[in-house]
Design goal:
By secondary structure, this protein is an alpha/beta fold. It is built from 23 helices and eight strands. 56% of the residues lie in helices and 9% in strands. It is globular, with a radius of gyration of 25 Å.
Length: 611
């Protein structure tokens, strides 16, 4: 561990943003293992009951299925989901009444939907002697289970209030054509590959875990995103003009950053020299109790290309610092940089030419870890996949939801028009990028814009960071729920935000799913459709490994492949942090009908800064 990292870990990383007091609470580290232990006990009890002689007679498919289906499935997904709902509700951040109502709401809603599904299947079987595939039933049950968890957490969790999200319709014809064509090609490719009846394809199909989602279904995603990535790279290469260097202001929220603030400012000064335009650095000293202010003043005074000053912001909270910087900025363009980010020498030079296109509103890049610390190698693959591949690809259809605040450029008027950065919740960077996009402006992620962003080197710090990050999708979706329920055709609101919510639920269930799959595999609860150990391994290694290799090669970082073992382990740890993050959300007694609340005139008519 370097001296800088050692100094960093000695600094308290807990802040008011770690668990916004109105929406989240700190949870002890024992709660996650206790929840998993309860889940295991409930799952085993249900599996034993269903596989007993009496249970097998009632449920011949060895799951809570009430009508005849054809074929077989890989996992008793309904038992899994009910065990998960009960255990996660029992250890949620609610009192006993809140826990009971939360659990009952999820279980009864899931049971009702499954009953309707089974009755429809039974009616078809009795009338036409036709029945759904059990594979299809399991897949549908699993996806519905993910949706129910996310939406019930949104309804019963204490969440930011809904705000009016201004949506300016712009022509999406090009994006829609691109999306439809690439989806068609991806599906056709998947069908063609699976029709070849290759031995490897059949073997992969036999290893599936969640309801029989096999290689054909999986193949659609990488083929789709590979096409979108190629289109986005084409856009990047043809979008910029050779030179554009207007004055810019860089705002840097800083709370107890004495260990790195000098390096941060030096990096920005080098970027300013390369850029050639006026660069004003504003260090927003946010309630620091160390030498951040002193070091920042001394470093700014010695800068050769950039001008700068320190502005004290006594009210704690990153958004307070950001808004003070937004108010102080006097330039047309605003750059937000985190205090632990070392910008690349060419970052400003590469980013600013995009703004010669008046349709561009946000520009970002790809954070890379400094290397050498515990999680750095795994983090490298993570950012290459998420920011260097998926985010770049989504730019091809104007579908970027958020650009991380580690390094991002805005037109200063846009965050001001939106009321500034939201205070009192997680995800203020995604919130402002998403809403600028809804104003009709493009968000660009250039994979060549790379900057060094510090990675927590201690488990406790990584846990705190990821709980903030993973909780933010719920805060953002609640605050911007107009996009989901309104009648406008927003791609972000109708497809991407719901997908992110469902994917968050899937990730929160990964560790319990691994435990559950191992139980079914070891004890052979389903003799008609036994799970093999390869199925459990495939869930954690198969698709993620392939996407990591593709992202590494496309980003020109083949050495990232060497970190694949650490990355796969880190993905499981990340899933566990997601589960803890969801458990940290405060849950109340009364669920809110989100769609009904959206239709009511219960929100202010202007910009809202406080969540």
């Amino acid at each position: 561990m370097s001296e800088a990292e050692d100094n960093r870990d000695k600094i308290a990383f807990i802040s008011v943003d770690s668990a916004p007091k109105r929406f989240a609470g700190f949870i002890p580290q024992w709660r996650g293992p206790a929840m998993l232990a309860l889940f295991t006990l409930i799952a085993v009890a249900l599996l034993l009951a269903v596989n007993s002689p009496t249970g097998a007679a009632i449920f011949p498919n060895r799951d809570l299925v009430f009508s005849p289906y054809e074929g077989r499935h890989s996992i008793a997904i309904r038992i899994f989901l009910i065990a998960f709902y009960i255990s996660v509700a029992a250890f949620s951040s609610a009192d006993w009444k809140g826990k009971l109502l939360f659990g009952l709401d999820m279980v009864l809603t899931f049971a009702l939907i499954c009953a309707i599904f089974d009755l429809a299947n039974l009616a078809g079987y009795m009338a036409f002697d036709l029945a759904f595939s059990l594979h299809f039933s399991a897949i549908a049950s699993g996806l519905l289970g993910f949706c129910i968890y996310s939406w019930k957490l949104l309804e019963r969790g204490l969440m930011p209030v809904r705000i009016p999200v201004e949506h300016r319709p712009v022509s999406n014809r090009r994006a829609i054509i691109r999306l439809l064509v690439t989806i068609a090609i991806a599906i056709a490719t998947s069908i063609w590959v699976t029709s070849l009846q290759l031995e490897m394809v059949e073997r992969l199909r036999s290893w599936t875990l969640l309801g029989g989602i096999g290689p054909g279904v999986f193949l659609v995603l990488p083929v789709l995103f590979a096409q979108l990535y190629a289109l986005a790279i084409w856009d990047v290469k043809t979008a910029k003009t050779p030179k554009f260097n207007p004055p810019v202001s860089i705002i840097v929220p800083a709370h107890n950053e004495e260990y790195i603030i000098e390096n941060t400012i030096r990096a920005m000064d080098r970027a300013a020299a390369h850029y050639g335009g006026e660069v004003h650095i504003l260090i927003m000293n946010n309630n620091s109790t160390d030498a951040t202010e002193k070091i920042a003043n001394a470093t700014l005074a010695s800068c050769e290309a950039a001008l700068g000053r320190v502005i004290n912001v006594p009210k704690p909270g990153k958004s307070n610092a950001l808004n003070a910087g937004l108010d102080a900025a006097e330039t047309e363009f605003l750059v937000r940089v985190d205090a632990d980010t070392l910008v690349g020498q060419d970052n400003l030079t590469r980013a600013m030419p995009y703004f010669t296109n008046p349709a561009v509103g946000v520009v970002g890049g790809v954070p890379v870890p400094p290397g050498g610390a515990l999680f750095d190698r795994a983090r490298l693959l993570e950012v290459l996949v998420k920011h260097g591949f998926y985010s770049v690809a989504m730019g091809a259809v104007n579908g970027v939801v958020g650009i991380p605040g580690m390094f991002v450029v805005y037109r200063t008027e846009h965050p001001r028009y939106l009321g500034g950065f939201v205070e009192g919740m997680n995800g203020e960077d995604t919130d402002v990028s998403l809403r600028i996009g809804e104003l009709g402006y493009h968000s660009v992620v250039d994979p060549k814009i790379r900057y060094i962003s510090e990675v927590p080197s201690a488990y406790e710090h990584m846990r705190e960071q990821r709980m903030r990050w993973f909780r933010s999708i719920y805060h953002i979706s609640s605050r911007c729920r107009d996009l989901i329920y309104s009648g406008n055709g927003s791609l972000r609101g109708k497809i991407i935000l719901p997908y992110m919510l469902v994917n968050s639920a899937r990730r929160a269930m990964l560790v319990p799913l691994i435990i559950y799959g191992a139980l079914e595999c070891i004890f052979a609860f389903n003799p008609n459709s036994p799970i093999v150990w390869q199925a459990v391994v495939a869930v954690t290694t198969g698709a993620p490994a392939i996407m990591a290799v593709i992202a590494s090669l496309l980003n020109g970082v083949p050495k990232g492949i060497l970190a694949l073992p650490e990355y796969l382990i880190f993905r499981v740890l990340r899933a566990y942090f997601t589960l803890e993050s969801m458990m940290s959300i405060l849950v109340g007694h009364d669920g809110e009908d989100l769609e009904l609340a959206t239709k009511k005139n219960v929100v202010p008519t202007g910009p809202v800064r406080v969540a």
